[in-house]
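Hi P.,

Sorry for the delay on this. The queue was packed all week, but I finally got your sequence through. Input first:
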Amino acid sequence: MIPNMIDTLKRRVFWIFARTCFALYRWFPVFGTLRASIAIIRRGETFLVIQRNDGRGISLPGGISDWKEAEENTLRREVLEETGLSVTGQELRLRYRSTADVPCIISVFEAEASGDLKDSWEGSPRWMTAPELAPRLMKSQRPVLELLDKISTELPKVPGETPGKAPDGISAKH
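Then the structure:
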């Protein structure tokens, strides 16, 4: 009972914190254009997303870079924080500018990861197909939808993998 209350409190605090920070930065972008990295992690025909606790829908795992942090390091740190997975490989696939939430340059990596999924105060990871996630994806990440569709048509990528059937374990492109 107490752990559930603590989890609920963390989610509510995150909702308030995230909404306040985004609103303030939209009005006062004191650090200029921010940088962010997000991961496309695939398992079969599904992609790993975060059901966000701040009420903004779902997002690909990732987040804002620390000052002078390399985009690859941001990717590894954010994926680990949000999902519990360790990035074992990545390839830059796209970079774009967004002003949907705050002014930001977003680097999109197709990534490989391993480990066990876990919830974070930011949200809960889950697997969804591109058509399932498209209507719920955060506005700032919508430019990635075309790339997700392209990656979906490139299946299978993992030797021996059958489209529509998720591989066992969590160690290839998942």
